Amino acid sequence: MEHITITVPAGRVLRGKALAGVVGSGDMEVLFTADQGQTLTIEITTSVDNSRGRWEALFSRLGLVSTLPAGQLVIHDFGATPGVARIRIEQVFEEVSYA
């Protein structure tokens, strides 16, 4: 298991919490808690060793297509593909934006 922490600038403030996915399904679980800060801190626990570069690239792309929200993002990954990871992350951001 690998533990990765990434901090990226945030450009919008949301309120609330959201959960998407289920790690026990062989997929991934993403939990987001919004705050009033200026960064998004991402804590990743993954079964895929040496994957920091993949995660950094994913958040770089997400930051290009939308403004990332401030808060804490906790990801429990069981080898999900980058496409599934992006969907789960976007799901929690969307859910909180409607809170």
UniProtKB/TrEMBL annotation:
It is found in: Cytoplasm. InterPro entries: Mal_deCO2ase/Cit_lyase_ACP (IPR023439), Malonate_deCO2ase_dsu (IPR009662). Transmembrane segments: none annotated. The keyword Phosphoprotein applies. It comes from the Bacteria. The keyword Cytoplasm applies. Keywords: Cytoplasm, Phosphoprotein. The modification O-(phosphoribosyl dephospho-coenzyme A)serine is found at S25. Covalently binds the prosthetic group of malonate decarboxylase. Belongs to the MdcC family. NCBIfam families: malonate_delta. Subunit of malonate decarboxylase, it is an acyl carrier protein to which acetyl and malonyl thioester residues are bound via a 2'-(5''-phosphoribosyl)-3'-dephospho-CoA prosthetic group and turn over during the catalytic mechanism. This is Malonate decarboxylase acyl carrier protein.
